Amino acid sequence: MNRFLIRSLLIFLSLISLSGCKDAPVLPEVTRAKAQEHTLWKAGAELYAPEDYRSYISALKNGRELLVTENSKFALFRDYESVQEKFRNIILTGEKVQQKIQEEKDKISKVVTDKTAFLNDRIRTMRRLSSFINEGRISCKSLTTAEVLLSESRLMAKKGDLFAAEDKLEEVSKFTELALKVMSPILSRYSDEAQIKKWRSWVNETIQKSKDRDIYSIVVSKIDKKLIIYNRGIPYRTYEVGIGINGSKDKMYAGDRATPEGKYSISKKTSNSRYYKALHINYPNDDDLKQFSVLKRKGIIPKTAHIGGLIEIHGGGKNGMTYGCIAMENAHMDELFKIVDVGTPIAIVGSVEFENSISSAMKGL
Question: Whole-prediction pTM value?
Fold first, then answer.
């Protein structure tokens, strides 16, 4: 009898021992959670849903600790129901995190797409504007940098690195602002109604002189880079011209390379000029002298500056930029030289149209 009991006890203990050494089962919920954790990390959960992701990781850690505790028990005493329930909740939490990531990505993607389109249009408009003025070259470096950065931002967005793309767009904005800062003082003159009215009055008075005195008169439009001859108040001939390196600005002092604006007259004709032939203009006139005095008094121009002179309409070709003169093709200079005399009125203006190419393009900025 004793032997039978002892044998039974040994068998029972052996069974318990064998059961206790049994490997822990692989729970499908745990496997899914492991795969989900990798998916969320790869999707950038730390960036796009940081708080939700931290809560998810914390719950996952607790679930794994619960699993370890359960696995450490003898097999006969293990109960995975609570572990499975825990991991099912973790998976549900992970699915919400995944949804949050996607929503955040969609939101940022829209911002990046809209801003990219806006900046792309802005750079194109500024490129177009810079082509209207000789001073556009000053803003070229900033615009080129902005274009390069915009391309980099597009590549980042394409790779899904939306935050980096958004940061890059901020840099693009800074360089477009730099370019605009350089161009604005020049461009704003061409959309200023008061300024254009003044230019118009100069042109009208110059054409009226042609009509009243039965003579030729000349109008130079900087924005169009055109010289128009009027005969008895009627357009007679039109030529393309070149202006100063800073020709879109009004001339303030000698050496600023700007082309003056105002009502002038031809003061001298030179048939053998450094630039083929030349028609000298009586710059500075009284208005130029007054403006120069005011600018100097206000410290806007250097104290040592002089007002300068020697402004001409000359040959040499229309494509080169001048130091402030108006340049024409030699053949056209020949025609003009024959037509006009000393005393011929001339108006040099920025534009006479309120809706000119610059003012129209500026509305797109």
Answer: 0.72
